[in-house]
Design a protein that fits this description.
The chain is α+β, with helices and mostly antiparallel strands and 303 residues long. The chain has 3 domains: 84 residues, Pseudouridine synthase; 142 residues, Pseudouridine synthase, CATH 3.30.2350; 57 residues, PUA domain (Archaeosine Trna-guanine Transglycosylase, Chain: A, domain 4, Roll). This is tRNA pseudouridine synthase B. It catalyses: uridine(55) in tRNA = pseudouridine(55) in tRNA.
Length: 303
């Protein structure tokens, strides 16, 4: 039974508009849901649009696991100009003609950034250094050097190439691309590194996230639509878990033991299939578990 004064348990898939922060979206959802217990599964930069997964009430406990799922982005990369922020919001630091850059060179540069790679995040990312966000340190004038980290780019595909020009007439190139990648991949860094590899510099001029795990922009809601019909836009927590994780249906006795913290025999699934969503005979979502040593270990219990 819901406690009086609490919001709905579930996810809201928002199509974030450009020009506002993810935290602004969270604040709007808090008002609509009537609860402060609201969070998101990974931010989008203010210039970026697209899928922002918001959790309300108990569904906030799903967010850390959802944040680890793969993502898809549509982006425009401008070759020939580097910026302070690796995107269009930062000042241009260098302009180099792309007149000599051919399609084969671009293809080779993209191939080098596809697969399992080591990526240095943008210095204006939200990564914390000694408790302070990297972007805050940069804005305060500090020189920030972040360590590389392993990421996987499973698709980095060019859809269109257009000629462009800088204000002084220097030839530039715009590339429309699609990227499928693991959590923690910075599309700004891909633009920066592609330009660096070509010797021209590069940055993002547009970014739209079209998928987070199983949740796509086709099933998302604009803020205006949420204002009109919020309750109908909330994906119930059980449906959200079933869509995002492998499902395991247990009997009544297994369910009783699990919710009381007892490690029972696991479902015998591949260890790479984690987390696993557990449902009781009535279809109630009980818990997220991982399987270790043949036993089911609870990651989070939802009843």
């Amino acid at each position: 039974m819901k406690r009086k004064g609490t919001g709905p348990d579930g996810l809201v898939i928002v199509d974030k508009p450009a020009g506002i922060t993810s935290h602004t979206v969270v604040a709007r959802i808090r008002k609509l849901a009537g609860t402060r217990k609201v969070g998101h599964a990974g931010t989008l930069d203010p210039m970026a649009t697209g899928v922002l997964v918001i959790g309300c009430e108990r569904a906030t406990r799903l967010l850390g696991h959802l944040a680890l799922t793969s993502k898809t982005y549509e982006a425009t990369i401008r070759l020939g100009q580097a910026t302070v922020t690796d995107d269009a919001e930062g000042d241009v630091t260098a302009t180099v003609s792309t007149a000599a850059v051919n399609p084969e060179a671009i293809e080779a540069g993209i191939a080098a950034l596809t697969g399992d790679i080591e990526q240095v995040p943008s210095s204006v990312s939200a990564i914390k250094i000694d408790g302070k966000r990297s972007y805050t340190r940069v804005r305060e004038g500090e020189e920030v050097e972040l360590a590389s980290r392993p990421v996987t780019v499973s698709r980095f595909e060019v859809h269109a190439r257009r000629e462009a020009q800088a204000e002084d007439g220097t030839p530039l190139i715009d590339l429309d691309v699609t990227v499928d990648c693991t959590s923690g991949t910075y599309i700004r860094a891909l633009a920066r590194d592609l330009g660096a590899g070509l010797g021209t510099g590069g940055h993002l001029t547009a970014l739209r996230r079209t998928r987070v795990g199983p949740y796509t922009v086709d099933g998302s809601h604009t803020l205006a639509a949420l204002e009109d019909s919020f309750a109908d836009s909330v994906l119930p927590i059980a449906d959200a878990a079933a869509a995002a994780f492998t499902r395991w249906d247990v009997d009544a006795e297994q369910a009783r033991l699990l919710v009381n913290g007892v490690r029972i025999a696991g479902p015998g699934m591949d260890r790479s299939v984690e987390p696993i969503a557990v449902f009781d005979p009535e279809g109630r979502f009980l818990a997220l578990i991982e399987e270790r040593g043949g036993k089911a270990k609870s990651l989070a219990v939802f009843v």
